[in-house]
Amino acid sequence: MFGFFQSGKFCRLLLPVTSLLLLPFTPSAQAPTEKEKLASGDILDSMIGVVIILFILSVITEKLTQLIRKYSPFIRPGDALYNTNAANIWQNIRKKQTDGTLEDDKIEREVNSLSFIIGLSIAIIFCVDIFRMFTAASPYDYLYWSDDRWTFIWEKHKWLHRFPLLLISFCLTGFFLTFGSKFFHDLLDLLFQAKNLKRKMVDPNTYESDNIQDFDEYLYKSYSSLIAMAIEQNRGVFQVVNAVSPPMHGRMRKNGRLVDCIDIHLSGNDRNNIPQTVFVKLESGRTVVVPVNVILEVETPVALFQQGSSTANKATSGYMGTICCKVMRNQQPLLLTCSHVLTGGTKDNLRGPINPTPAQINGQDAGSFVYGLCTDEFDIALIDTSSAPFNYAIQPKEPRRPSQTDIKNTQVRIVCRNNRIKTGTITNERVTEPLKIEYKGNSEHSITNLMVISHITETDGETYYTGVTEEGDSGACVYDQDNNPIGMIVAGNSRFSYAIPIVAILSKISATIIKQNV
Which residues pair with 358 in a beta bridge? Predict the structure, then answer.
């Protein structure tokens, strides 16, 4: 019987059915956020997030089950649990299955029951509320115990239904974790394919195949690889003198819906004969059409190092920037900002740790710069303020790396100088090619993997882009709608703002964000 429960068909049915049936009864069910309304996947995106968490937890469950089976404390005289009820339940736990005998069935039942107990324990330890995850824009927000979650569960007059639902959630999670990591890996593959296929349903290229081989090839080709192929095959088309950015993966509105396209930014108002669409040849030889979104009158991004923000090198106090956040690095609390704030606006690379350099915060002497790095991927500086108090304008949650789903979908908030909070939208989640930035003295330096942000308005079918940041906002922290830090502003112009992904910064400097006011 348990073998049926472990079958792929059963679980693929149970996960979505569970989410759909219990969604209306979930205590946290709320009207969808703007992000959820705009997201292309809706319930599919929620399912992908939940399955990713279950996959990770299933790996932990498998490892612990294997460890207990190998060093079982149930079998031999003198073992910790010998002659207990546990020894009676798991007396065959160390045996290996052979050829489908009755003893094999006993071993399988014992292993599955042990996996369930371990999975249930993990669900309780991590406080995995699978019901609330399905209604959240970020499922990982409902991991781990916290004072807020404890208060929510035991709220007066509401705990009578919230606590039983939480217990059911824990049991379901433990049950799901017995299916193993391979199952969840396969399920993730299925969900990602379903997400891609959903977009292909409204793509005209899908319906222009001449044979089943061409149809299959295009149907299962991801848009990211399609756009990358289109850029590579048409690179000469985009090599124009007034190009401000390299061609990149974007989205544009066409016939009332967002479609994947190639974005390119040009200075002036001349398209230089860049076509509205380009062709890309697939491996089979089939040719498909990819739209091109040309955005005109975009200036070269300028490092935002001018007057009016909250931090500067004391020796070059006229060139100011903005504090991004407080981080912990090598057991030392530090403030994060841009390297060109430290160097007075230049692109000089100080290559990491430096001798303490006096820093100013809000015009007053307050600590020292101790780190500076300006490379083809980073523009980072760290300030030691001797553990001085630090307050957030927006309390940060877990940092995350933006994905292609965020393009033209995710609204952001940026904490600019003097605690001004401005809003915009992610227009490109990652520019994979070098993007030129103008530093002090008209010197240029290129940075790859930048995120592009703009304030987008649509009037009479036309899309308009307006920059969100201004001079002095270098180092400003970029948050998504769920207060997850996603980037640090490094440059901007009148149309766009450019940010380094925060996850990449933290990885580079081996640091974590200090999330509370300290």
Answer: 368
Contact status, residue 430 vs residue 450, Cβ threshold 8 Å: yes
Beta bridge partners, 435, equal 447
- Residue that is written with structure tokens 């490109």 in the block: 428
SS3 assignment, position 283? coil
Number of Cβ atoms within 10 Å of the Cβ of 397:
17
Q: 3-class SS at 364?
A: strand
As a whole number of angstroms, the distance between CA 493 and CA 513 comes to 28
Contact 312, 360 (CB under 8 A): yes
DSSP state string for 463-517: EEEE----TT-TT-EEEETTS-EEEEEEEE-SS-EEEEEHHHHHHHHTEEE--S-
- Predicted TM-score (pTM) of this structure: 0.70
Taking each helix axis from N to C end, the angle separating 43-70 and 181-200, rounded to the nearest 10 degrees, works out to: 170
Residue 438 backbone phi and psi in degrees, to 5: -90, 120
The region, left, alpha or beta by phi > 0 then psi within -120 to 50, assigned to residue 356 is beta
Residues 468 and 375: their CA atoms lie apart, in Å, by 24
In the beta sheet, which residues pair with residue 445? Answer: 437
- Measured at the CA of 378, the angle between CA 389 and CA 512, to 5 degrees, comes to 40
* DSSP-assigned beta bridge partners for residue 248: 263
Q: Which helix (DSSP H) or strand (DSSP E) does residue 178 occupy?
A: none
In this structure, are residues 60 and 122 in contact, taking their beta carbons and an 8 Å threshold?
yes
Please write the tens of the pLDDT for every residue from 36-94. 333 344 677 778 888 989 999 999 999 998 887 777 665 555 565 556 666 666 666 66
Could you tell me which of 111, 181, 170, 180 has the C-alpha nearest to residue 142? 170
H/E stretch holding 428: strand 421-431
